[in-house]
Amino acid sequence: MVVSIHRFDIASLPAMPWKNGGGTTREIACLPVGAGLDDFDWRASIATIDRSGPFSQFAGVDRVIMLLDGAGVRLRSGEGCIEHRLDRPHVPFAFAGDVAIDGELLGARSSDFNLMTRRASVRADVRVLDARVSLPPADAGLLLALRGCWRLQGGDAQRLDAHTGLWWDGRSQGWDASPADTDTDIDTEAALLLAIRLEKLHPSSDDTAP
Predict the structure, then answer these.
(1) What is the predicted pLDDT for the residue at 17?
(2) Distance between CA atoms of 110 and 92, rounded to whole angstroms?
(3) What is the distance between the alpha carbons of residues 87 and 146, in angstroms, rounded to a whole number?
(4) CATH of domain 6-118
(5) By three-state DSSP, how is residue 114 classified?
(6) Which helix (H) or strand (E) holds 106?
(7) How confident is the model at residue 20 (pLDDT cuts 50, 70, 90)?
(8) pLDDT at site 81
(9) What average pLDDT does this structure show over 3-7?
């Protein structure tokens, strides 16, 4: 079976305004197909935050947020269990979506990558890479060129320019990834790739027994 690869360009993703007017969201993927915010297994998106305010809560969901540009945002929970300055670009921060969090803008605007995974269904491995790597097969996942261009080998060859990416779901897929200029004299130190591997959690034989 051929894995279906879905490519995307951040610049061409449609922006949807938040209900509270505090920002916009550009959805990259929401699986399974047709799922909404109450029943997805995993969802990836980019949010632009225009004003300080509360984050939406998602019971049973694990979240990863990563600053893309802007001064960032300070994340605080009422119980004090979370106190984090998201002010360094391309550094993922994981937290539970069940927790009530307020986001205080540290500047005029912040743009962030967001990953949400249903805790009972999916486990995520999120890394930011700056050198050639072999990524083991995963049930689903997403690759995004944050800086520079990247070559991907995994079945069909792929090339990702900066701010473009791809995602897959439904069958195991692995990748060999390397900065596109690895074999030249061009400095590739700035190349960065967001690599997300998603493991589907299947019920045990005891759980499915009659």
Answers:
(1) 87
(2) 15
(3) 16
(4) 2.60.120.10
(5) strand
(6) none
(7) low
(8) 86
(9) 88
